[in-house]
Write a structure and sequence with these properties.
7-stranded mixed beta sheet; 2 domains; VC0802-like; Rossmann fold; 9 helices; binds S-adenosylmethionine; alpha/beta
């Protein structure tokens, strides 16, 4: 189904891993310009970037952004101080434009507002949606094939009594790339991996990339696919807008050689086609100059082979002494305090805060 009016500007909130907002903003600007020929209006917020563009341009972000977690389309922004008003706002939306099922998943948050009881807000929203559907039933033919459609997620945020109502156009979070044959049990989120690669790698130079504790190879995969369109999965907006026809873009990392090292022989065999070989990071040597990125075990799910105090320190030393590091980016638990780094920032991966250290050859 096409939308009635073309060329109207919509607002999209694109969320991303915390502290990665600037990286996402630069990805949006570069890639949007590539696909649409113009620089978009963007605004950086905590946790994401707001972009104003046409509907189909915004929906297409889902297919080519590698640093984004979700793309939310803003449906309404208005004052809301009480439940009757909330009911009215929800009942008035033209839901049939988006929904192929009469139930949705609500995600409701409030701050500094008169509306504070989110359970009661959810009940009000569900009642209002039911009321909306009384005269606007979805056709029985569509309702009979629920497996073909997504259960849409609706986000409501009320802050200082200002309500923002959005629909999640992504469905599964975008770090779920789809088509994955194998994923290790402690793999880094694909979106965070892409953000860290943007931070690490230069654009205008051909480089070698090495991950000495590669696991299922998320860094290596993301590095090879940064410019690719994701056609390996479905997105929630496919229920109400056609699938965009897009080709890969130019924002390719300039990679000469991509190598991974992994100590677990079984894990390493899964990554042969990614360039992963069986080996030990502490004895691996390379005669090349390498950009090195690494998410070592934290000593919980995956045990450390050395005393915790020396494991990470020694890995940095090995990277520069034996592995030809030019720059080395490494994730560690928060209690690991290393010295001599160029940059240290906090990242949030699968529910825990960690450090990402970057070291440079002096
Ligand atoms: C946290 S996981 C890395 C996950 C990886 N970034 C991914 O996304 O799949 C750490 C990996 O390092 C491997 N490892 C631990 N010690 C190692 C060593 N000394 N040399 C090479 N790999 C090692 C573990 O077997 C595990 O697969």
């Amino acid at each position: 189904m096409r939308f009635d009016i073309q060329g109207i500007m919509e607002k999209f909130y694109v969320s991303c891993p915390l502290n990665m907002e600037k990286i996402l903003n630069s990805e949006i600007i570069e890639k949007f310009k590539h696909y649409n020929g113009i620089k978009p209006q963007t605004e950086i917020h905590i946790g994401g970037v707001l972009i104003e563009c046409e509907l189909e341009q915004g929906l297409a972000l889902n297919l080519y952004l590698r640093c984004a977690t979700r793309v939310l389309l803003r449906i309404k922004s208005q004052k809301c101080r009480d439940f009757p008003k909330l009911f009215k706002i929800i009942q008035k939306v033209n839901w049939k434009k988006f929904l192929k099922k009469e139930e949705v998943q609500w995600s409701i948050t409030t701050a500094k507002s008169r509306l504070i009881n989110t359970s009661k807000m959810e009940k009000t929203c569900s009642d209002a949606l039911k009321k909306y559907f009384e005269p606007n039933r979805i056709s029985q033919k569509i309702l009979n094939t629920p497996e073909k459609f997504h259960t849409q997620k609706i986000f409501i945020r009320v802050e200082n009594d200002d309500l923002e109502l959005s629909i999640d156009t992504s469905g599964d979070a975008l770090y779920i790339r789809g088509g994955e044959a194998y994923r290790g049990n402690a793999s880094i989120r694909a979106t965070i991996a892409s953000c860290l690669l943007v931070q690490l790698l230069p654009r205008n130079e051909e480089v070698n990339l090495l991950d000495p504790m590669a696991g299922s190879g998320t860094f290596l995969k993301e590095a090879k696919r940064f410019h690719k369109i994701n056609n390996s999965r479905s997105f929630a907006f496919y229920d109400y807008s056609p699938k965009p026809e897009l080709l890969d873009n130019n924002f390719k990392f300039n990679l000469k050689e991509v190598v991974g090292v992994e100590t677990d022989p079984e894990v390493a065999t899964h990554g042969l086609d990614l360039g992963i070989q069986h080996g030990d990071a502490f004895t691996y040597t390379s005669t090349h100059k390498n950009y090195i990125i690494c998410n070592p075990p934290y000593g919980k799910k995956v045990k450390l082979s050395k005393d915790r105090d020396i494991f990470y320190k020694e890995l940095v030393q090995c990277a520069f002494k034996n592995m030809g590091a030019i720059r080395f980016s490494m994730i560690t638990p928060l209690d690991i305090k290393l010295v001599g780094y160029e940059k240290r920032s906090k990242i949030f991966n699968s529910g825990i805060w960690l450090y990402n250290y970057t070291f440079e050859r002096k």
